[in-house]
Amino acid sequence: MISSSLEQHRQGVDYEEGTDVQNLHAAIRRDERDLQVRIKPFSLWVMVVCGLTIFFVGFCSSRYAVNFSAASLDSTSPPQSELNPQTVQSNANPARVAQSVGAEADTPAVVHIVMKNMKFDPATIEVKSGDTVEWTNEDITPHTATSAKFDSASIEPEKSWRHTFTEPGSFPYNCTFHPDMKAAVLVK
Amino acid sequence: MMKLIAVTAALAAVAMLGTTHAQTSTTGSAPNDAQIAMIAVVADTVDIDAGKMAEKRATNKEVKAFAETMVRDHTAVNTKATALAKKLGVTPEESATSKSLKSDGDKEMAKLEGMSGAEFDKAYVDNEVSYHEAVIGVLDKTLIPNTKNAELKDLLESARPIFASHLEHAKQLQKSLTK
What we know:
The complex is a heterodimer.
Chain A: H1 2-74, H2 85-92, E1 110-116, E2 119-121, E3 124-127, E4 132-137, E5 160-164, E6 169-174, E7 182-187
Helix pairs in contact in A: 1-2
Chain B: H1 2-26, H2 33-57, H3 61-88, H4 96-113, H5 117-146, H6 150-177
């Protein structure tokens, strides 16, 4: 009983909707034809203006980015420019670079890096010559901070290790236990 | 028309509720916290045992270093898990999952036992890749979603990136060994 009345109801609705939809489609097609003719010169202008804007913005930002990374690269000594592309990129983004605390004053600072969830955080850090970096292991497994110039050996969970940087340069390092844990310290 | 939509939606909703209810009632075998703790401990122990064998037998320097990391990290996770179980007054309890993990581990050890040199290195690393994939699957699908105790859940969640890192490490080794 209920199903048959539903069926009837639906058939009626479908029929009504069918004609409605057809009319609607016809109207839309008409509109589309009109729009195509009328809008063409206008859309061309819009495209030209957008294109110029994108080009201009792209040009400016690329110049800015190049200047920025060039400046930070200049300050590192030439023989240690072993920065991988990944670190250069994150360096170009000021938000990701942790500045040393005593950056304004000339007093040496202690900068903190945590080892957490199998990552160094922050992965790229910028300090001044004379600053000390402290690594703290917040994971439940031991880690190391190891480069050609320094080696923490095993840092147990909840323990820290410090190293003072006295020469400028870029120092990529990793955890010898977990080779995919990679990071870098940039000393100005 | 609106009525029809409403009726259809309601019917669909009832149908969906019915099936999800049926699903939850059939998966009555979800492990409890005591069983989850045991599964975690057994999963670690199996990998520690294989790692200890590889520390002695592996000929490739990097495979040896990897085995040392497996023993070091899984021991650390196990120490945490055992301490937490003690603190919570939970006695780890055997289950079908923990038993099959153990027996699969024993079989793998027996297989590795008969190997040496490069053959051993490759078989060990291949097994580490599939083992970590399997353990991460169990963590994501069974252990983490079913854990009631917040501290145990935290521990499992912090163990996950460790296993993911091991998997990546093993995959890298696998690539370098097949070169």
